[in-house]
Amino acid sequence: MKTNIKKKYKFQSEIKKLLHIMIHSLYSNKEIFIRELISNASDAIDKLKFKYISKPEKYINNKKMYIRIKINKKKKKISIQDNGIGMTKKETIKNLGTIAKSGTKKFISSMKKKKKNNKLIGKFGVGFYSSFIVSKLVQVKTKKSLKKKKKPILWESKGKGKYSISYTKKKKYGTKVTLKIKKKEKIFLESWKIKNIIKKYSDHISTPIEIYKYDEKNKKYFWEKINKAKSLWTLNKNKITKKQYKNFYKYISNDNLNPMIWIHNKIEGNITYISLLYIPKKYNINIWNKKNKNGLKLYINRIYIMNNAKIFIPNYLRFIKGILDSQNLPLNISREILQNNNIVNKIKINLTKKILNMLKELTNKKKKYEKFWKEFGIILKEGPAEDLENKKKICNLLRFASFKNKTEKQNLSFKKYIKNMQKNQKKIFFFTCDNYKIGIKSPHLEIFKKKNIDVLILSDKIDEWMMNNIKEIKGIKLQSISKLNNTLKNIINENNITNNKKNKKFIKKIKKILKNKIKNVYLSKRLTKTPAIVISDDKDISTQMSKLFIAAGQNIKPLKYIFEINIKHKIIKYIKNINNIKIFKKWIKILFYQALLMERGTLENPNKYIKNINKLLILNYIK
After folding, report:
1. Which pLDDT does position 553 carry in this prediction?
2. Could you please report the per-residue DSSP string of 256-306?
3. Under a CB-based contact definition with an 8 Å cutoff, are residues 262 and 222 in contact?
4. Among residues 171, 194, 463, 545, which one has the fewest Cβ atoms lying within 10 Å of its Cβ?
5. Are 110 and 120 in contact (CB under 8 A)?
6. Which CATH number fits the domain 491-621, given the four candidates 2.40.128.630, 3.80.10.10, 2.40.160.60, 1.20.120.790?
């Protein structure tokens, strides 16, 4: 049987683009390939530990785990070897020939735009391919750590669109990555350089990292340990430097930026655990993807169990990165068991409170919190609906724009809004819209601007849903200004004009024309510059909420609005005196569709609206 024949494969098309950009672009920080390969080796060892615990009859566990680096200056090669779980042929093709679920298209487009492309590597699961930045040939020898023997595999590529796979000889289980270093990158063949890189990025890794070194005195080679090989989170907080915390974050998150803030806690008692939680500096591109792997790295008594354990933090805090090490959970725990475990629920409650307290402290640093809110505020807005127990704490963290604040930056808290309320103001007013620039010019605000009553301008898609779940703050109810109720009627003072006999006749004529298109007609004083608007009844859903339902694919009944007329406006005064019923109808329909356009941003039949305008123009101005 032929076992040595190399079979050639083509890379996934996106990898071809990726490799071309990597190899032909300039990188300000080429050394990250060491970090990425060591990170992969560490993960392989952690996976084997976990697999052996859950299925000792299937896997082989090495007594001494290690990551070993060997440099050959003459051949210009560097190899990184581990005795972790290894790979089968199928896994090798899957892991090294394709990039699945990694957002590669976005990665490639980002690399084209940015000069410092290295800041993106790892963030999309493409760290292994950074090897081609410094090497002209990459070889991967791997053997799966199974009791049922599988043939070792040799994977080779020059990073030019193809790779080959063949069977090879390998006594020890695990994976060995060998790089043929480019001439201009010979600095990476210096042992001092490799040591410095490892101490910079990987000093905290619990597996010993060793480099092959020659002892001049004893005239022999030996393996020298480089890293401290201690689990950082188990050390005393007072003995951990800021630099160590930051480097550890980069290791667990594949983020090249430093974290914004972190908390490190050890809880002892009935439930004993250590948590080290970070808030990233920047928004993760995949955070809205339902299949995206968010969550904590879970350890039990320092033994790695799983990545992306989502169950320990609520979904509205999914931007949190970090580790959790518990002494109270069984080593063979699965994701299914986690979901129904009482200890997990207690840990989740405690971690949530810790994170919310950390955010509360961050609000004291105004500029830093503004940066946090810009990146993660829209995610935190999911909190009031998701976490009823902590709703009050979450609401204190929320920030908004308002028309009196004169900026689209969301930096106004409920506390500050309440402090600035007018003496007789009984509600917190808000207005939901598609964007701030449209919202700030909405006719709905006219009376509030006139009376100097501030209104929160809410332009995120989630805002309407969020406000419906908050309802009140410190006993003060929230009120949408695009919905009509008694409070709003008192502010806009409309009852006295609607009861006028002449006005009643005018309203009756309008109702007859618009019929079932509307719910009611009011003559209002709320408008100062605009002739007419439409608003929702307090019992009906709002325009923004209906947009959300439609976007989600739900069928909802067409909204029937209340049509409000500004009786003092010149156009309305003119229309009121029109005796020709056909012309009167056209004017009313134009005003109604104009109001709908302002409210919705679109019309079901814009052609009909334009035809009515053109007819009026012909009647009045063209003879």
Report:
1. 76
2. SSPPSEEEEEEE-SSS-EEEEEEE-SS--TTTT-TT---SEEEEETTEEEE
3. no
4. 171
5. yes
6. 1.20.120.790
β partners of residue 430: 456, 480
Output the CA–CA distances (angstroms, integers) from residue 137 to 4, 522, 524, in the order listed: 19, 77, 76
Burial class (CB in 10 A: 0-12, 13-18, 19+), 617: exposed
- pLDDT tens column, 195-212: 998 888 788 788 899 999
Residue 151's alpha-carbon distances to 5, 43, 87, 146, in angstroms, are 14, 22, 10, 11
Instruction: Name 171's Cβ contacts closer than 8 Å, sequence gap at least 6.
Output: none
Whole-model pTM: value is 0.72
HSE-CB for 366 with a 13 A CA cutoff = 5
> Is-contact 479 488, C-beta < 8 A?
yes
The pLDDT of residue 119: 44
Percent of the chain with pLDDT over 70: 87
Split at pLDDT 50, 70, 90, the class of 381 is very high
- Look at residues 357, 322, 324, 353 and name the one whose alpha carbon lies nearest to residue 341: 324
Asked if the model's pLDDT at residue 304 lies above 90, the reply is no
Nearest alpha carbon to residue 100 among 127, 130, 129, 125? 125
CA 193, CA 282: separation in Å to the nearest integer?
30
Q: What is the pLDDT of residue 530?
A: 92
Tens of pLDDT, residues 520-542: 898 877 888 999 999 888 788 87
Q: Which helix (H) or strand (E) holds 545?
A: helix 543-551
Kindly report the CATH class assigned to 399-481.
Answer: alpha beta
Rounded Cα distance, 373 and 601, in Å: 28
CB 603 within 8 A of CB 612: no
Pairwise CA distance, residues 361 & 219, whole Å: 58
Answer yes or no: is pLDDT of 81 > 50: yes
Task: Write down the domain spans for the chain.
Answer: 7-225, 232-362, 399-481, 491-621
- How far does CA 17 lie from the centroid of its chain? 26
Across the range 231-244, mean pLDDT stands at 90
**Structure-block tokens of residue 468:** 């419906």
* C-alpha span between 85 and 95 (Å, rounded): 13
Overall fold of domain 7-225: Heat Shock Protein 90 (3.30.565)
For residue 338, is pLDDT > 80?
no
Q: For every residue of 363-380, which 3-state class applies, written as one string?
A: CCCHHHHHHHHHHHHHHH
Q: Where are the alpha helices (DSSP H) in 308-382?
A: 335-339, 342-362, 366-380
Give, in order, the Cα–Cα distances in Å from 367 to each of 142, 294, 355, 373.
49, 27, 19, 10
What are the angstrom distances between the C-alpha of 437 and each of 306, 402, 440, 529?
46, 11, 6, 18
Q: What are the pLDDT digits (tens) for 416-434?
A: 999 999 988 989 999 999 8
pLDDT of residue 340: 74
Q: What angle do CA 25, 131, 42 make, to 5 degrees?
A: 140
Q: Between β-strands 7-10 and 67-72, what pairing exists: parallel, antiparallel or unpaired?
A: unpaired
6, amino acid identity:
K
Coil, strand or helix: which one is 7? strand
532 versus 619: the higher-pLDDT residue is 532
Q: Using alpha carbons, select from 562, 497, 500 the residue that is nearest to residue 532.
A: 562
CB 309 within 8 A of CB 295: yes
* Topology adopted by domain 232-362: Ribosomal Protein S5; domain 2 (3.30.230)
- φ, ψ of residue 81 to 5 degrees: the values are -125, 140
304 is written with which tokens?
């790695």
